[in-house]
Structure formats: structure tokens, C-alpha cells
Write a structure and sequence with these properties.
single chain; 270 residues; Serine Threonine Protein Phosphatase 5, Tetratricopeptide repeat; SH3 type barrels; 3 domains; 5-stranded antiparallel sheet; 10 helices; 7 strands; 57% helix; globular
Length: 270
């Protein structure tokens, strides 16, 4: 794990990425700094005294979560550190949840990517992603690899270039190719941005965050189990539907099942 790379620059970046908190900026920065200090002390302590190390990690987590719960901002550094702390406490599902949130804000961050991949490797359940999904991720690499904010900028550039080229074409009868290429670029990124918006509203992702849960064929404990074995923490899914107290989910292998709402959390950033 790469948590030791977190240094003062992380705190500096954190300050300028908090637009509006219930806490003041100074209070939030102080809590974040305290959390980092406690986390690092926990890492040093646990080698000799595991219980003391866990206690320090829990204290760090309290500070990080207070910022996340009371804050109105979005901060990948904060989410990343929450993921690190949950990992050190052995809560794989929560760690994946917060790394996924951090990755939504910083898709190119190598530390987030590597830590997420490592924690995923610790899961009990191995559900293979369907072949079509892997193929789409390869073909539509720009949709998954380029941050949402950058895609918005590229859409604006493409649209502006297309309108400029169209005006020039109407005036000089030249530049048709530039106009078409620019329009295509703008349209591609417009579709990508729209898909993001629709997926976030209609099919948010989620993670099983309890140690294990029995998935069922209906939204009640009386329904029989969907599988011979329970699902374990860290299993990721897409939300298909909801009922009071239950989530209807689709797993990476395309199977669908019901799980209690309290057994999972959705990957949403407010």
C-alpha cells in the first residue's frame, strides 16, 4: 500500500479543494492533518502492538468521516485516506467503496488505482466480468479513462470548433472536413457525458459492505437463496431496482439478485 506517500502537499491540495463545509476550512484542515498523523502513528505502532495500532486507525477514521459527513465538498484525497484506513482495519468492502468514490473524482490517480486493485484481490468472491463489458471498456477507453471534467472541456472545444468551421464553410466554401471532424469529436464527448449522467441517476454502482449476506430471489427473507454460498464483503454491483429495505442488483457476471439494503452501500458523491 502506498499510504506513506501522503505528505504535506496532500494537505495543501486538500485545503483548496474544499468549497463549502459545515466545518470551517481551518477546522477541516486540522481534522485532516490530525487524521493523517494518527494514521501514520498507527502504521508505526501496529508492528509492535496491533491493538494500539487499530485504536489509532479508528481515531483517524473518526476524523476523516466527520469531514466527509459534515462537508459539502468533493475531495479525492479525503476519500482515498478513508479507503486506506478501512483497509488497515480489515474492512475490505468499505475500503473498495471509498476508493471507488475517490476514483470517480481522480480517474488517473495511480495510487488510487493500485490500492483499489490490491484490495479487490483480497475478496473472497471472484465474479468474472462479462466479456462484452471488457470489450466495451477497451473500445470506449476514452469514456472510462478520461475524467468527466476533461471530457466536458473537450466537448466544448469540439462544439466551438465545429461552429467556427461551419461559419467559415458558409463564407468560403472551405473547411468541410474540419467541420465534420470537430462535430464528431463534440458529439462523441457529448454522448459520453450524457451516459455518465444517466448511469449516475438510474444505475448507481454499489458494494457489499458486511462480511457476508445471503442473496435472495425476492425482496423478503422468506424467499430462497439465489446462490449456494453467501456474497461476501467487497462484491461490487450495479443497482437495478429498489424495494423498501432491499436492493435488486446486477453482479459482474450478469446474474441478478436481491440483498438487504443494510448490507450494501451505493457509490454516490453528494
Amino acid at each position: 500500500m502506498k499510504y506513506r506517500r501522503i505528505v504535506c502537499i496532500g494537505i495543501f491540495i486538500f485545503v483548496f479543494l474544499i468549497p463549502g463545509f459545515s466545518l470551517t476550512k481551518d477546522e477541516a484542515v486540522h481534522l485532516f492533518s490530525e487524521g493523517i498523523r494518527l494514521f501514520q502513528e498507527g502504521a508505526e505502532k501496529e508492528e509492535k502492538d496491533e491493538a494500539a495500532g487499530r485504536a489509532l486507525y479508528k481515531d483517524a477514521l473518526v476524523r476523516f468521516l466527520r469531514i466527509a459527513e459534515e462537508g459539502k465538498g468533493k475531495n479525492s484525497k479525503l476519500f482515498y485516506n478513508i479507503g486506506n484506513t478501512y483497509y488497515k482495519l480489515g474492512e475490505i468492502g468499505e475500503a473498495i467503496l471509498w476508493y471507488r468514490k475517490a476514483q470517480m473524482l481522480a480517474p488517473r490517480d495511480v495510487n488510487i488505482r493500485d490500492n483499489l486493485a490490491f484490495v479487490r484481490s483480497l475478496r473472497i468472491d471472484s465474479l468474472e466480468e462479462k466479456e462484452v463489458s471488457r470489450l466495451l471498456r477497451t473500445i470506449l477507453f476514452f469514456h472510462y479513462k478520461i475524467p468527466h471534467s476533461i471530457r466536458v472541456i473537450l466537448f466544448c472545444i469540439g462544439a466551438a470548433a465545429a461552429w467556427t468551421a461551419a461559419s467559415y464553410y458558409l463564407w468560403k466554401r472551405k473547411g468541410l472536413a474540419v467541420m465534420l471532424v470537430s462535430a464528431c469529436i463534440g458529439m462523441i464527448f457529448f454522448i459520453s457525458i450524457t451516459v455518465d449522467s444517466l448511469l449516475e441517476k438510474q444505475s448507481p454502482g454499489g458494494v457489499i459492505t458486511v462480511q457476508e449476506v445471503t442473496a435472495r430471489k425476492g425482496d423478503n427473507e422468506t424467499y430462497e437463496s439465489s446462490f449456494t454460498e453467501p456474497l461476501h464483503e467487497g462484491v461490487e454491483f450495479v443497482l437495478v431496482d429498489t424495494r423498501p429495505g432491499w436492493y435488486y442488483i446486477e453482479l459482474p457476471d450478469s446474474s441478478r439478485t436481491w440483498v438487504p439494503e443494510k448490507s450494501a452501500q451505493l457509490i454516490r458523491i453528494h
